[in-house]
Write a structure and sequence with these properties.
The complex is a heterotrimer. By secondary structure, chain A is mainly alpha-helical. In chain A, 74% of the residues lie in helices and 1% in strands. Chain A has one domain. Chain A contains 21 helices and two strands. A two-stranded antiparallel ribbon of chain A has the order 1-2. The radius of gyration of chain C is 21 Å and the shape is globular. Chain C has a five-stranded mixed β-sheet, sandwiched between helices. In chain C, strands 7-6-8-5-9 form a five-stranded mixed β-sheet, with helices on both faces. Chain C has a two-stranded antiparallel sheet with strand order 10-11. The longest helix of chain C has 22 residues. The chains are: A mainly alpha, B mainly alpha, C alpha/beta. Chains in contact: A-B, A-C, B-C.
Chain lengths: 504, 174, 342
């Protein structure tokens, strides 16, 4: 096995103890960046990029990619504890992670999230090690029509009617789409819904909205219920890790599905955020406990995290082999390669063996190191919930404000966040669901532009969405997903009928 | 959940604020106004299906239209329903609790624009801990100074990400 | 002491030292420049993280840091809203603030015309031009033509479903302007498909989803080396000077200019620095000097070569003259193409 010998060579590169130090520094900084909402993986890596200028390329990429792993791990922490997604891809983690924390199961949720992340990353790095050239070719098949199909699939797998009134679900989702459209239109360069305001030029950032809707909204709801975090009694027992691990093997099928979804979305490159939503939606549809999702189901924490981390990791594959960034963070790393004097692209694997295999080896080690780092922090983070509300609430609000500001370095975003906080509170009270709004906000822009790019290519013919087997099958699959609840209901009725008939 | 509290909890007369039905209708109206705004602006940039696919306003226009229709349904349901949800939207005491956070936070956001985020955060934490938590000064000061200081070190010095600053920081040379 | 932690600590120490011994410590160390930044300088990038302008800004930040070219930190801030309008408006509104600079790309000219957001280079103080970015006409390596002539013949012959698709970055920006210029010169018609970034465009061209692109050299060089794309011509007035072979024994210098191949179009993209309005002469001079030093470093020169930049650098009146001319050219091209907002 050529890949295996190269990998061993890669571990040889890591034998330099300095590189191991960089790895731990990177992971710790990354966790911190992941915890701070607003300061995402991409920002974090970009900010620290100039620091690596005087390092060797191998050490530099090890440190920066470790920041990325750290951020991927760290995003889950605030999602679970305070309902504030530290990173876009950990929004889906809040859906079950925070209810778990409220039930006093913060430790379990954190362990589940971290372990899921690790499994996803491990799966993805195996893919990079052994199948890189094959997979890279697959990514090239994706044109605008295929991208739209992927976004459509994300939507359709996530959307399902909950207990909320359908008119409200639709209104909330449309609000998300409308907000996503504010700002400059990427396809025609026209300004939409900015009404001559400079501040609206930048549009509504998904993260700012989410920090408000979930983070600030949660605090208002907590206030209403009387000053208390319900998770106060969180049991802090180091054994919670082992206890949670014992539950994980039974989710193997879901884990495999999430890892595959994640790798697919990372490679094509759809990104970690759609991957996490799609994985959550699929798990909800196909799990036996699907009905309990949203109320604090461990599975609902593990699945999106697995997919997000698998996507984040496999996003490096198209970056290394094709020079296309699979995620915003990968885009910054790509810039880093150029700064260090390397050329990303098909020849990197041939010309810079040390660099590439050193990086791949560091993904293995980095994720193991990351898992150890974050697992040791589980009791510390779970203990934060014991801090009285009147101390922690202002600190959370301060961190929310900082987070909203750092997304775009814009002061007005802090006010926007506060408004979203009030909206989040009102919506929750009036039974408007937040998840469709958030999903529409994050995907609306990308879905619309890829749809219109596809229309430009086909000159307005919708037939492009069935023009080849790849796009045709994804679109068809998406439509099947959309009507799945109906199908399963009909099937159940038919089965029920048959059983009844057999009984007679 | 809200209906439950409306029916089961024998709320005192003075706890009544507005009914869920009123709030539902009000929010639906806001949605409809917003939808109208979205539609009108989208029409301005062009909302037709041109020869090379949809124009810039095509999707937003229909998004607005669907939002309008969905909210009309919500509004009509709220107004003509035979079993209107007359439960209390929020108890007066609850509203007071929410306002206790919302108003100081609004002031805090305003302060950020005036004196920068570090000083505003310190003031906000002091106020919150002192007014709502009734903590002694000895406990308040370390938190109120420590949090902004930690943020300062992290953002301005480690990560080199400038946060909003005011006259105090300028005087100190930042 | 090469570790990053040490650097962070050192940076902290430096910042502290500056606050305690502010003015007197700094002033005398530079004899030739009368003005010195007294606090962190913000380096605005009117584009997103990971793009060409962002890369260059962070490269400069790294060079400044590594070679200790500034006594105060330089921090890169992305303000990409409204095709960069947000960043330019921020600088325009920071009257007399010498602690802010902005790196410009062609959106300095295209964004106000395409969106109607009011700003121009005249609302700011020009500092210096760092380099010009080249544009190259790329096609898939499997394409049946090897030169511009063959490409144009195929373009003219194309009709109906076979229409040529040009992939580019953004809408009504440099890539689409060049596309429109080709259309005006040849009378042919492209379908222009806008994407988010140059890397995406190159990959779409490799995957055969578009027929051609006008990627910057740095965005497509790796695909050229891998034998997946081929360059047809460069939109400069002269051939590139870089003679080092890149792919199949061909170098950047072997690519003919579009003009000599019968497609008379020139387009270069500004990579230059501006600062807020009403900056004093001393303040401008400080930054002119700083960028002179940056350009002299071996790191910068290697970067220029890797990205096959046109290394023309101007400052003072020459820079202003260049900006005036470029603004007029953009206005003309965009008016002809119908890209100007009504």
């Amino acid at each position: 096995m050529e890949a295996l010998t190269s990998l061993i060579g890669g571990f040889g590169v890591l034998a330099d103890p300095m590189n191991i130090v960089y790895m731990f520094v990177g992971i710790s900084l990354g966790v911190l960046i992941g915890v701070l909402p607003g300061l995402g993986g991409a920002n974090g890596v970009a900010i620290l990029l100039p620091l690596t200028f005087s390092m060797s390329p191998v050490s530099a990429i090890i440190m920066l990619s470790s920041i990325y792993w750290g951020a991927l791990f760290g995003g889950a922490i605030t999602s679970i504890l305070f309902n504030i997604p530290g990173e876009p891809w950990s929004v889906a983690t809040t859906f079950d992670g925070h209810p778990m924390a409220q039930k006093g199961k913060a430790g379990e949720a954190l362990t589940g999230a971290f372990t899921g992340s690790f499994i996803g990353a491990f799966f993805a790095v195996l893919l990079i090690t052994f199948l890189a050239p094959v997979i890279a070719k697959f990514a090239l098949q994706f044109g605008p029509a295929e991208f739209f199909a992927v976004y459509l699939l994300t939507f359709c797998s996530f959307v399902g009617m909950g207990k909320e009134p359908p008119a409200k679900v639709i209104a909330a989702m449309m609000l998300g789409f409308a907000l996503a459209a504010v700002g400059i239109d990427t396809v025609t360069g026209q300004l939409r819904m900015t009404f001559g305001s400079v501040e609206l030029l930048r549009g509504f950032d998904f993260l700012v909205a989410v920090i408000g809707l979930f983070g600030v909204g949660e605090i208002l709801l907590t206030m209403e219920e009387g000053l208390a975090f319900k998770g106060k009694s969180a049991s802090i027992n180091p054994r919670v890790v082992l206890h949670t691990w014992a539950q994980i093997p039974k989710y193997w099928a879901g884990l495999l599905r999430s890892a595959i979804v994640g790798c697919w979305m990372g490679v094509t490159p759809g990104g970690a955020t759609p991957a996490s939503f799609m994985s959550y939606g699929l798990a909800k549809k196909f799990s036996k406990n699907g009905r309990n999702f949203g109320k604090g189901e461990l599975e609902g924490v593990i699945m999106p995290e697995t997919a997000a981390h698998a996507a984040g990791t496999s996003a490096l594959l198209p970056m290394l082999t094709l020079g296309i960034p699979g995620s915003p963070t990968a885009a910054v790393l790509l810039g880093g390669l150029l700064i260090w004097g390397l050329q990303p692209g098909p020849l990197l694997f041939v010309e810079q063996k040390d660099f590439v295999w050193g990086l791949i080896a560091s993904i293995y080690l980095g994720n193991i190191a990351g898992l150890i780092v974050v697992l040791t922090t589980v009791p510390i983070f779970a203990a934060i919930l014991r801090i009285p509300f009147s101390v922690i609430a202002p600190i959370i609000l301060v961190i929310c404000a900082v987070g909203a500001y750092t997304v775009h370095n814009a002061g007005l975003d802090i006010a926007v966040m506060l408004i979203f906080g009030v909206i989040g509170y009102l919506f929750k009270k009036l039974q408007y669901p937040l998840a469709p709004l958030v999903l529409a906000l994050v995907l609306g822009d990308m879905a619309e532009s890829s749809f219109r790019q596809a229309m430009l290519v086909s000159q307005g013919h919708l037939s492009i969405f069935w023009s080849n087997p790849l796009v045709g099958s994804i679109v068809t699959l998406a439509l099947v997903m959309l009507v799945w609840p109906l199908v399963s209901k009909v099937m159940a009725r038919l089965n029920g009928g048959k059983e009844a008939a057999a009984a007679e | 959940m809200s209906t439950e509290s409306g029916h089961s909890a024998p709320t005192a007369h003075n706890e009544k604020t507005v009914t869920n039905r009123t709030m539902d209708a009000a929010v639906a109206l806001i949605f409809m106004a917003l939808a109208a705004l979205v539609m009108s602006d989208s029409w301005r940039v062009g909302a037709r299906w041109a020869s090379d696919g949809p124009q810039a306003g095509y999707f937003p226009f229909y998004v607005g239209l669907i939002m309008f229709i969905a909210s009309t349904v919500t509004l009509v349901t709220a107004l003509v329903s035979r079993h209107p949800d007359l439960g209390n939207f929020v108890d007066r005491s609850q509203l007071v609790s929410v306002m206790q956070v919302l108003i100081p936070t609004t002031v805090y956001v305003g302060l950020i624009f005036l004196v920068g985020i570090y000083l505003a955060s310190a003031v906000f934490i002091v106020f919150f801990m002192w007014w709502l938590g009734k903590y002694p000064v000895a406990k308040i000061i370390p938190v109120a100074v420590g949090v902004p200081l930690a943020l300062f070190v992290m953002f301005e010095i480690w990560f080199l990400v400038p946060l909003p600053k005011g006259p105090l920081e300028t005087a100190l040379g930042y | 002491m090469h570790s990053a932690i040490a650097k962070i600590v050192r940076r902290g120490a430096a910042a502290l030292a500056v606050t305690t011994a502010l003015a007197p410590a700094v002033m005398p160390s530079w004899a030739h420049a009368a003005w010195e930044p007294t606090k962190t300088v913000e380096f605005i990038v009117p584009a997103g993280t990971g793009g060409g302008a962002d890369q260059m800004a962070r490269m400069i930040q790294g060079i400044v840091q590594k070679n200790n070219l500034m006594s105060q930190p330089l921090v890169v801030i992305n303000k990409s809203g409204g095709a960069g309008a947000e960043g330019f408006l921020d600088v325009k509104g920071s009257n007399r603030n010498p602690h802010k600079i902005i790196i410009s790309l062609s959106n300095l000219f295209t964004t106000p015309l395409a969106t109607g957001v009011p700003f121009s280079w005249k609302d700011m103080t020009p500092v210096s031009m760092l380099a010009l970015d080249e544009f190259v006409l790329w096609v898939n390596a499997k394409a049946p033509y090897d030169d511009v002539k063959g490409f144009l013949a195929a373009l003219k012959a194309a009709s109906g479903d076979q229409t040529f698709k040009m992939g580019g970055t953004g809408s009504k920006q440099e890539d689409q302007i060049i596309t429109a210029a080709i259309e005006q010169k040849t009378g042919a018609k492209f379908i222009y498909v806008p994407y988010k970034g140059g890397g995406d465009v190159a990959a779409q061209l490799v995957g055969g989803h578009v027929t051609a692109s006008v990627n910057n050299p740095i965005e497509a060089v790796s695909q050229w080396r891998a034998g997946e794309l081929k360059p047809l011509c460069v939109f400069d007035y002269q051939r590139l000077p870089y003679k080092e072979p890149i792919a199949n024994g061909k170098s950047w210098a072997d690519i003919p200019t579009c003009k000599e191949s019968g497609l008379d179009i020139e387009y270069l993209m500004l990579r230059g620095i501006l600062m807020p309005p009403n900056a004093s002469k001393d303040q401008v001079d400080y930054f002119v000097e700083l960028f002179k030093k940056v350009r002299a470093t071996p790191e910068w020169q290697e970067f220029m070569q890797k990205g096959a930049f046109n290394t023309t650098a101007l400052s003072g009146p020459e820079y202003s003259a260049w900006l005036t001319k470029a603004e007029a050219t953009h206005k003309d091209l965009m008016e002809k193409a119908g890209f100007v907002a009504k």
